[in-house]
């Protein structure tokens, strides 16, 4: 009966010697069992990743591995790549059950050849299973971190793009506000509006709120601040396009817009600056 | 039942013919705002000649209608306020010092014109 250590060495060596074959077997199993078709990543890349995984498990078994750290590195590398290629995470992870099957089939053959003991099997499993778990954990972590940061970038981009100050004449511009305005966005609006008003040397800035359906006290506060800040810079602010539901919210919140110039719609706002819009 | 709102050029004319109950009042509030939004009206005359009495809730709703309309850039003139209604409004502290009032529709429209030019 062979001892655990001997068995480990043998299995490890078996894995390392047959790394390429096993990797291809995994790739094949991945395709057959789950009918995965590679549209975003090449078959070679998948085989290479599988191969690295086999190598790490093998090295660990013969006692030369870097254990969990190695698996985590693999997981992170694969996870980040998968996220950037926009691979579906759940499909990518299906490689793991296939890997497990292939690994354990080799472990089983070595046990049969060497007549390994039951206890030894558990020892081997206790080495191999945690490694696989670490790999999965690291993959998931890296994948989702990657997704998060891309999402955050997209959000920042949206904020940037969402303050379109449209010049109508050399000293009048319109700022249409569209969509929900939360505290972050209203801060952005404020600073961008001030910045652009200065840039364009405006006399009047018309804030069109037709696209805004709700408002809270913080955002209203920001509007007042914007008004004051612009007034000090010599820019007149006219609000227009307040929707019925917005107006009801404002009154119910008890906010007074007395200090602001408010008109019904854009043509009226323009009329206040001396411009007329004629329907001809 | 909804209170009919009539459009006259830039203005809206409303004659309240019945004693308002809570639901009618709230519906009225919504309808006025919608109409101002749709038509871009700059003035609203609300004639209350046929309204003999209002309670505190209706008084609040009326006050709110005025505020809300102002927020939408429309001036409001209340006309034909009956004595009992006037007393309730004062009691409720509805700031009618800022709300122009007039005796009847004709004077109401004149007042509106003044308001809008001023």
From TrEMBL, chain A:
Xref: Pfam families: RsbRD_N, STAS
Limits of the STAS domain: 162-273
CDD domains associated with the record: STAS_RsbR_RsbS_like
Keyword annotations from UniProtKB, A to Z: Phosphoprotein
The keyword Phosphoprotein is assigned to this record: yes
PANTHER family per UniProt: RSBT ANTAGONIST PROTEIN RSBS-RELATED, RSBT CO-ANTAGONIST PROTEIN RSBRC
Protein name (database record): STAS domain-containing protein
TrEMBL record, chain B:
Domain of life: Bacteria
Domain STAS: 1-112
InterPro entries given in the database record: Bact_StressResp_Reg (IPR051932), STAS_dom (IPR002645), STAS_dom_sf (IPR036513)
Protein name per the record: RsbT antagonist protein RsbS
């Amino acid at each position: 009966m062979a001892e655990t250590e001997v068995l480990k060495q043998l299995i490890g060596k078996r894995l390392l010697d047959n790394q390429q074959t096993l990797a291809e077997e995994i790739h094949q199993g991945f395709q057959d069992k789950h009918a995965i078709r590679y549209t975003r990543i090449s078959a070679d890349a998948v085989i290479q990743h599988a191969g690295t995984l086999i190598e790490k498990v093998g090295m660990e078994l013969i006692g030369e591995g870097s254990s969990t750290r190695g698996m985590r590195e693999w997981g992170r590398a694969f996870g980040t790549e998968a996220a950037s290629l926009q691979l579906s995470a759940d499909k990518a992870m299906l490689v793991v059950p296939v890997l497990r099957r292939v690994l354990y089939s080799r472990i089983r053959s070595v046990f049969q050849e060497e007549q390994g003991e039951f206890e030894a099997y558990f020892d081997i499993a206790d080495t191999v299973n945690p490694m696989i778990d670490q790999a999965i954990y690291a993959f998931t972590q890296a994948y989702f971190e990657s997704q998060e940061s891309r999402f955050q970038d997209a959000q920042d981009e949206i904020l940037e793009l969402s303050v379109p100050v449209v010049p109508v004449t050399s000293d009048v511009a319109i700022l249409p506000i569209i969509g929900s305005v939360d505290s972050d966005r209203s801060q952005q609006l404020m600073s961008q509006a001030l910045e652009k008003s200065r840039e364009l040397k405006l006399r009047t800035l018309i804030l069109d709120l037709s696209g805004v359906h709700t408002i809270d006290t913080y955002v209203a506060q920001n509007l007042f601040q914007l008004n004051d800040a612009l007034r000090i810079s010599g820019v007149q602010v006219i609000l227009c396009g307040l929707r019925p539901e917005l107006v009801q919210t404002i009154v119910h919140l008890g906010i007074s817009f007395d200090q602001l110039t408010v008109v019904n719609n854009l043509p009226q706002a323009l009329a206040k600056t001396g411009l007329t819009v004629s329907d001809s | 039942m909804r209170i009919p709102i009539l459009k006259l050029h830039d203005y809206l004319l409303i004659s309240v013919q019945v004693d308002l109950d809570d639901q009618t009042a709230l519906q009225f509030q919504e309808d006025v705002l919608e109409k101002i939004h749709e038509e871009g009206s700059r003035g609203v005359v609300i004639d209350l000649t046929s309204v003999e009495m209002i309670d505190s809730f209706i008084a609040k709703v009326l006050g709110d209608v005025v505020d809300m309309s102002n927020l939408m850039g429309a001036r409001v003139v209340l006309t034909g306020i009956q004595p009992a209604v006037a007393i309730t409004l004062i009691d409720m502290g509805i700031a009618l010092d800022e709300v122009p009032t007039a005796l009847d529709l004709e004077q109401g429209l004149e007042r509106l014109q003044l308001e809008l030019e001023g």
